[in-house]
Amino acid sequence: MLESEAIVVKVENGATFVEAQTEGGCGGNRCASQGCSTAVLTRLFSQQPKALRVNNPIAAQVGERVMVGLEEGAFLKSSLVAYLLPLLALIAGAALGLHFAAHDEIRDLYAGLGGLAGLIGSAFAIKLSLPMLLGSSVQPVILRRL
User: Fold this and answer.
1) Quick one: residue 128, left, alpha or beta (phi over 0 = left, psi -120 to 50 = alpha)?
2) How far apart are the two ends of the chain, measured CA to CA in Å?
3) Helix axes 107-134, 72-79, angle to 10 degrees
């Protein structure tokens, strides 16, 4: 299980939101004191912390430091749905567009429109069927108080 420290920032209507503690990629104490290059890049490219919705089985309250966990396969599964599915839909749409092109002069246009249609269709399909595709295993959960 992947784990990260976080602070509970909001609890409302049964939903709990946390903000993760930002570290460099190495996660070492050296980053804070000596400023390793990964920590510098993290500060340079990261925006303000974003609140993440998590399951809260331990009833943590606002301001508490907690350990948030995510199943290891969840990240891979989410990445496949977010990247591979649209790519496959784009390729399939372009292939269908080529198949239905009546003349050689408009094959590229049909392929482009078919690919765009496949990409847009995959976005709607992901949005509508995301809970079914991923299930509850991709939802981060508060494991314990720190």
Assistant:
1) alpha
2) 17
3) 160
Angle between helices 107-134 and 85-100 (to 10 degrees): 150
Q: What are phi and psi of 107, to 5 degrees?
A: -60, -45
- Supply angle C-alpha 94, 97, 102, rounded to 5: 150
101-114 pLDDT per residue, tens = 888 888 999 999 99
How many residues belong to the chain?
A: 146
> pLDDT (tens digit, 9 = 90+) per residue, 41-89?
555 556 667 788 888 888 888 988 999 888 888 778 888 888 999 999 9
Q: Which residues pair with 53 in a beta bridge?
A: 17
Three-state secondary structure readout of the chain: CEEEEEEEEEEECCEEEEEECCCCCCCCCHHHHHCCHHHHHHHHHCCCCCCEEEECCCCCCCCCEEEEEECHHHHHHHHHHHHHHHHHHHHHHHHHHHHHCCCHHHHHHHHHHHHHHHHHHHHHHHHHHHHHHHHHHHCCEEEEEC
**What domains, with CATH codes, occur in the chain?**
2-70+139-145 (2.40.50), 73-137 (no CATH)
